[in-house]
Design a protein that fits this description.
Elements lengths: L3 H14 L3 H12 L4 H8 L5 H40 L18 H15 L3 E2 L5 E2 L1 H4 L19 E3 L5 E4 L5 H9 L4 E10 L10 E11 L4 H16 L6 E8 L2 E12 L6 E2 L4 E11 L1 H6 L8 E8 H9 L12 H7 L16
Parallel strand pairs: 1-5
Antiparallel strand pairs: 2-4, 3-4, 5-6, 6-11, 7-8, 8-9, 8-10, 10-11
Helix pairs in contact: 1-2, 1-4, 2-4, 5-8, 5-10
Bound molecules: 3,4-dihydroxyphenylalanine.
3,4-dihydroxyphenylalanine binds next to strand 10 and strand 11.
């Protein structure tokens, strides 16, 4: 019978000499693998008579255990050596000079959303969101938009099929989030909803994807005075002009009654637009008292609850505030444009710290 001592020495020498995980694996396979030395010897037990088999089996088992212990110890030794090597080689050089030129810029759309949110945040509004893929009910029906309304037509709205074949659409405004919020939460409600919106429209002043921000306040006694107060305050804070003239012009939206569009004072003398001066007006948002039918559609009693809503285009107010002349440039991802119109990463807008540079 082959001497186990010789085999044992040979295997342990291999294990002790292994400097890497790969070499150790090779040693393991050579000893204990499917046709490893120890495995082959175990197979040979079958040919022995019972007494010899018992003795040899016990010897082989204790050898196997010794090898397994040696393998584990070698693994520990290799792991420690690998770690020590990494600690030496991957050391961070803290003396490297800091890169002063920061490439990244906050996109004007993100910045403008942050500004709007921070102004309404100070008034107690919190941010709400809703899905981009909507259905007829939330985007149109619940908002009292009649079946024949032009916005519902194929050429204005992107329709798509849901997974069950049902008709879906890309939301055409952020107003469906009003519906979702009123159906899911009990008043009092004060939300602001920034987000993407989609319309089948593409020219110099329209993009198929754009951004809006919606506002909604519902309580028992919210009235037109609250709407006016909040929106005047918003316009003056956003454009950072203390006495900015703000005008409420009667208008029509299916989901509000009465409805008003909000204009701010400006001058167009000499071809240039100047906000806050002169006798001209510039429309910036739509608003109104939430229509009783919309409240009822969401399960609210119009005799006990009422409120106001408003909606505006983010790109539009960003263009006005930051003098960005072309809507299409927002989505071109042109780094030179972003370097020019973008904001530093730490320029976080707040009423106390200033809304922008
Ligand atoms: N959803 C309107 C649009 O996309 C904007 C709007 C107007 C929203 C008046 C409102 C509102 O909440 O009260 O043109």
């Amino acid at each position: 019978m082959e001497s186990l001592d010789r085999i044992r020495d040979e295997i342990l020498r291999l294990i002790d000499g292994a400097a890497t995980g790969v070499a150790l694996d090779e040693a393991r396979v050579a000893a204990l693998g499917r046709s490893g030395q120890i495995t082959e010897l175990m197979k040979g037990l079958r040919a022995l008579d019972p007494d010899a088999r018992r003795q040899r089996g016990a010897d082989l088992n204790s050898l196997k255990q010794e090898i397994e212990t040696a393998l584990a110890a070698a693994q520990g030794r290799i792991d420690a050596a690998t770690l020590a090597g990494r600690l030496v080689n991957e050391r961070l050089d803290m003396t490297l000079p800091v890169r002063t030129e920061i490439e990244g810029r906050i996109h004007p759309i993100s910045q403008t959303i942050d500004e709007v949110v921070s102004i309404f945040g100070e008034m107690g509004f919190s941010v709400a969101e809703g899905p981009h893929i909507e259905d007829d009910f939330h985007n149109f029906t619940a908002l009292n938009i009649p079946p024949e309304h032009p916005a519902r037509q194929e050429q204005d709205t992107f329709y798509l099929q849901g997974t069950g074949g049902e008709r879906k659409l890309l939301r055409t405004h952020t107003s469906p989030v009003q519906i979702r919020t009123m159906m899911a939460h009990k008043p009092p409600l004060r939300i602001i909803v920034p987000g993407r919106t989609f319309r089948s429209d593409h020219d110099a002043t329209h993009s198929p994807m754009f951004h809006q921000v919606e506002g909604l306040m519902i309580d028992r006694a919210v009235h037109m005075g609250h709407l006016k107060g909040c929106l005047i305050e918003f316009c003056r804070a956003f454009f950072d002009i203390e006495h900015l003239p703000v005008r409420f012009r009667p208008s029509y939206f299916p989901f509000t009654e009465p409805s008003a569009e909000v204009d701010i004072g400006c001058s167009r003398e000499g071809g240039g637009l100047k906000i806050g001066a002169g006798g001209d007006w510039l429309e910036i948002l739509g608003s109104g008292m939430v229509h009783p039918k919309v409240l009822a559609n969401c399960g609210l009693d119009p005799d006990t609850h009422q409120g106001f809503a408003f909606g505006m285009g983010i790109e539009r107010i960003a263009m006005l505030k930051y003098g960005i002349p072309d809507l299409r440039t927002f989505y071109e991802s042109d780094l030179r444009w972003l370097r020019h119109y973008g904001f530093a990463a730490l320029d976080i807008p707040s009423l106390a710290g200033g809304l922008a540079r």
